[in-house]
Amino acid sequence: MRFLRVLWRYPAITTTVLVFVSVLVLNAVDAPALGRWVATGYVAVFVVWTLVGMVRDVLRGHVGLDILAVVAMVATLAVGEYIASLIIVLMLSGGEALEDFAGRRAKRDLSALLDRSPRIAHVLVHAESAESDEVRDVPVDEVAVGAILLVRPSEIVPVDGELLTSSGTFDESSLTGESMPVSRESGDEVLSGSINGSRAVRIRAVRSSADSQYQQIVALVHAAEDSHAPVVRLADRFAIPFTAVSLVLAGTAWAVSGEASRFAEVLVLATPCPLLIAAPVAFLGGLSRAAKTGVIMKGGAVIELIARVRSAAFDKTGTLTQGRPELVDVRPANGFGANEVLQLAASAEQYSTHVLAEGIRRAAEARGITLLGAAEAREEATNGVVAEIDGRDVVVGKPAYVAALAPDTARATLELSQAAAYVAVDGRFAGVLVLADHPRPEAAAVIAWLRTHEVDRIVMLTGDVGPTAESVAHQVGISEVHAELLPPEKVALAAELQPRPVMMVGDGVNDAPVLAAADIGVAMGAKGATAAGDAADVVILVDSLAKLVDAVSIGRHTLRVALTAIWIGIGLSIGLMIVAMTGLIPAVVGALVQELVDLATILYALRALGGPRTVLPAASVSPARAPNSATIHLNG
C-alpha cells in the first residue's frame, strides 16, 4: 500500500519507469525499432512539458535552468542514445522525489511544531469549586479570555494562561529549545504549546488562541515555509555561467572530435539538479535547525541576509536591557502625595504599551493601589500618554512632552541606568517616577561576538534620553548611540547605516516600523504577540539575546553549506564533462554517474541540519559610568 502511495504521489517518475521497462522488454524481444519510437515519443512529450515550465520560470524573472537538460535530451535522441535520454528523464523526474524526501527531512522540526498545535481545551464547568474536575471540551479557538481550564498530565497547554495551581512543571522545548522542564508557581504565566508534567493543573486563560504564543509561532512557521524566492535567486546566480561553460565544453568536444555523439556525452553530465535541489534543501535545513533552537526565520532570504550582515542596530529597553524596569523612587511635587501621583500615573499607563508603563503598573499593584478607569485616553508614540482619570487630565511621559502641557515641569537628577516618567495633573507638574532597568547579563558577550565575526558597525537607536542610553551602551560595549529618537527617525537612520546589510534588533510596538525598514528585522518575541514580531524577519522565541548569535551563526553555516553543495555539484559536473570530452564516458554511463553527483550534493546539503555549537566569549557587563567616551547623537 505504501509503495502504491509513492507511485501515486510521483506520476512522472512512475510513468518514466514504466516506459523504461517497456523499452528494455521491446529490445529483449527483438523489437528495438519499436522501443526507439516509444522512447523517442515519451522523451519528446517530456521535453515539451519541461520547455513549458522553463518558459513560465523565465516569465517570472528566473533563469530557465532546465535548458541544459532539454538540450541533453534532444542531443541524445538525435545521436540514437535513447536509453541515455530516458535516464535523463528519470533523473529529472526522480529529482522531484529526492527533493521531497530531503525537504521533509530538512524541515522535520518545522513540521513537528505544526503537528503539536493545540486543538482542544478542557473548560471547567464548576470553576469555583476546587474539588470538581468536571470539564467541557471545546475547540481551542473558542476559549474565552478569563476561562478556567484544566490541563491534564502530559497534555499540551492550549492557550497562554496564568497558573492557578500552587505549582507545576512544564516542558517548553518546542517553544524555547530548552530541553530541561521548567517549574512554575501560582500566578506565573504558562505558554501555549508547552507540555504539562505529571500532575493536572488549572490555568486561567489570559489570551485567546489566536493571540497565544504557540499560534504566533505556527503563523511564523507558515510564513517561513511559504518563502521560496531566495533559493531561486541563489541558483540563478550560477545558472547562466554554468550553462555557458557546459555548452562551450560540449561544442568544443563535438568540433574537435567531429562526432555529434560527443556533444551528447558531455551534456548528459551537465544537468542542473545541484542548483535546483541542493540549495533549497540546505535552506530548509537551516530554517528547521533555527526553529529547534527557538529562532523562527521567515524564509531563506532572511538566512542569506543575516549570514552577510555587516551592521547591527539595537533598541535599548527590552532588547539590550532586561525589559522589566522596577520603580525605585516616587518624587511628588507641588503638594501631591506619592501614592496619589503613582495611582494617577499607573491608571493612565493602563493605556500605554511602553515598557516603563508596565513597570509603573506593577509597582502600583504591588502597593495595593487601585487603578482607576479613564473616560478617554490616547498614547503618543515614544512620548507618553494623556488620559482623563476621575475628572482630572493626567499626562505621563518624557520631560519635554509633559513640559509642553505643564510649564513648571522640573527635570529630575537621575543616576546612570535610571529612567524617569514625568507626571502632570490638570496642567500642573505633579512629580517624577524613577525606574531602573539593568542590561541583560548576556548583552556584552553578544556585542563582543558580533564584533569578532565581521559585523563592522554596531549602534544603539533609542527614544530614551542621552545619558541613560549612553550608560547602558557603555556597559554592553556599544560606542555609537543615537538617543531621543522618534520612530520615523529610527527608520531614517536604519536606512542610512553603512555597510549593508543592516540588522535591527528590537522588541516593542514602537520598533515595528524600523524592524520592517531594516534589511533584517529581529524581534525579541518571547513576551507574546506584538507588532514587532509581525514586522520582523526573525523572531527570537526565548527571552535571551544570546539567541541572536545562534541566528547569525546558523545563517552563515546554512549559506556556506548551500554554496558548497552547489560548488561540489558544479565542480564534479565540469570535471566529468572534461573527461567525457575525450570519449571515455558513454552517454548512458554519464547519465548514471550524474545521478550519483546529484545524490552527493543533496546529502551534503543536509549538513545544514547540524553545525558547530556557538560559544559566546566571556564578556561581562561593564559597570555604569558617566558618559564620556561614546559618540552620542541626540535628536534635535
Protein architecture, described:
The protein is of the alpha+beta class and 636 residues long. An 8-stranded mixed β-sheet has the order 10-22-21-20-11-18-19-23, sandwiched between helices. β16 and β17 (428-436) form a beta hairpin. It is elongated, with a radius of gyration of 31 Å.
Describe the secondary-structure layout.
Layout: H1 2-9, H2 11-28, H3 32-59, H4 67-78, H5 82-106, H6 108-115, E1 120-124, E2 135-139, E3 148-151, E4 161-163, E5 167-171, H7 173-176, E6 182-185, E7 189-190, E8 195-196, E9 201-205, H8 213-225, H9 229-257, H10 260-267, H11 273-292, E10 295-297, H12 300-307, E11 311-314, H13 316-320, E12 326-332, H14 338-349, H15 355-366, E13 374-380, E14 384-389, E15 392-397, H16 399-403, E16 418-425, E17 428-436, H17 443-451, E18 457-461, H18 466-476, E19 480-483, H19 487-496, E20 502-506, H20 512-517, E21 520-524, H21 531-535, E22 538-540, H22 546-580, H23 587-605, E23 631-634
The CATH class of the largest domain turns out to be: Alpha Beta
Distance between the termini: 72 Å
CATH topology of the largest domain: Rossmann fold
Give me the secondary-structure category. alpha+beta
Relative helix content: 40-55%
Ranges where pLDDT stays below 50 over 5 or more residues in a row are 228-232, 625-629
CATH superfamily of the largest domain: HAD superfamily/HAD-like
The shape, in one word, is elongated
What Rg is obtained from the alpha carbons, in whole angstroms?
A: 31 Å
